[in-house]
Amino acid sequence: MNVKIYKDANAIGIAAASIFAGQVIAKPDSVLGLATGSSPIPTYSRLIEWYKNGTLDFSKVTTFNLDEYIGLGHDHPQSYYYFMQENLFHGINVPADKIHVPCGTAEDIDGEGKHYDEMIAQAGGIDVQILGIGNNGHIAFNEPCDEFPMGTHKVALTQSTIDANTRFFESSDEVPRYAISMGIGSIMKARQIILVATGSAKAQAVHDMVKGPVTPQCPASVLQLHPNVTIFADEAAAALL
Ligand code: GLP
Questions:
Q1: Residue 166 near residue 140, CB atoms below 8 Å
Q2: What mean pLDDT comes out for the span 163-180?
Q3: Taking each helix axis from N to C terminus, what angle separates 9-26 and 41-52, rounded to the nearest 10 degrees?
């Protein structure tokens, strides 16, 4: 596990976007794994900038997002599909049919999960996956639990995650209680993983991910076992390392 410490979120955005840029330049038909949350936003801003100035071309790229709230459709402003349109896809040229976000309104969520994992496999697997980390050590929506979930599956959100994500909704009552999320197995299959963490609220989770035991009680700790992981942290998030 490679840990790199930067002065702020903007510097991290440049560094993380450079990994994606190198990947897409080297392999124009790359499969990129994408995340929501505030952490990847500076990375996405740089990718938009580099597309607009002609450096990058995403026309052959395929993307898979990590997760989605159950019950929120594409046009709900807090859905992760909507987030991705607003923060990345509106500004780059990934073809619409190559963009994948788990469907939170599918009638058969288990079937949707299986289908999602099959689509990733058919696309050849994920070349580079970006992750954020929850205050409780979750990655995607894999919450602390007793065993690592394998494939894309339905998750009951913990109170800690509901509290953390209430800031995006009018009130806590409006935060969905369930999500569909890539599993730890799906994430660990990515050939390269970059994880972005900023701010002091992430310091304990970053410590437990890097220095703690590998345990599903801190889902991100499993990344210690992946051969190609880089953590991009600012000084506040890395304070306990
Ligand atoms: C959500 C997402 C995660 C994300 C986490 C942290 O729960 N499902 O993928 O990593 O929030 O978000 P932020 O980057 O805003 O701190």
A1: no
A2: 93
A3: 50
Relative to the CA of 140, which ligand 1 atom is closest?
A: 9
Q: Among the atoms of ligand 1, which is closest to the Cα of residue 38?
A: 15
Average of per-residue pLDDT values in the chain: 97
d(CA 37, CA 85) in angstroms, rounded, equals 13
From ligand 1's centre to the CA of 88, what distance in Å?
A: 16
* Residue 236 β-bridge partners: none
Query: 185-226 pLDDT, tens per residue?
Result: 999 999 999 999 999 999 999 999 999 999 999 999 999 999
Q: Is the CB of 35 under 6 A from ligand 1?
A: yes
Residue type, 197: A
Q: pLDDT digits over 70-83, tens only? A: 999 999 999 999 99
Q: Whose C-alpha lies nearest to ligand 1, atom 10? A: 132
Global pTM value: 0.96
Kindly report the number of other CB atoms within 10 A of residue 8's CB atom: 12
Whether the CB of 143 sits within 6 Å of ligand 1: no
Cα separation, 224 vs 216, in Å, equals: 12
